[in-house]
Amino acid sequence: MTEPIAGLIMGRNLRAFLELLSSYADYAFDETDWDTIELGIFDTDDEKPDGWYAYPLVGSSATLEVSLAHSVGSEVMSIRVAGAESLELRLRTDTLLTAFFSI
Predict the structure, then answer these.
(1) Is 43 exposed, middle or buried (0-12, 13-18, 19+ CB in 10 A)?
(2) Rounded distance, CA 91 to CA 58, Å?
């Protein structure tokens, strides 16, 4: 198993990030997923080991475990994505993290 891919994104980009990441795993991300994640990340804190929220994206081409936490005092979300095994999926995930941090 490969190491999780970690990075930061702007909180306002979280839904778009998850929707695109889900499409790369062939997972149909929907409103129920988003509602669940919104509730799950409410009290997260990336400085606490137990302050993260994990959500599975179980698609037909990949199963990803996305861990999310607020960077307290900012509009930034810390992200870790486990399960991106192929080189292509790792590259796509890393590119999404980079893009959604800067826009």
Answers:
(1) exposed
(2) 19
Mean pLDDT, range 65-92, rounded to an integer: 96
The residue to which tokens 């606490």 are assigned = 48
Half-sphere exposure of 6 (CA within 13 A, CB side): 7
**Which pTM does this prediction carry?**
0.94
Give residue-wise pLDDT tens across range 21-50.
Answer: 999 999 999 999 999 999 999 999 999 999
* Nearest Cα to Cα of residue 82 among 98, 100, 68, 99: 68
Residue ranges with strand state E in 11-62? 53-58
Q: What pLDDT does residue 36 have? A: 98
With the C-alpha atoms ordered 7, 12, 18, 20, is the resulting torsion angle positive or negative?
negative
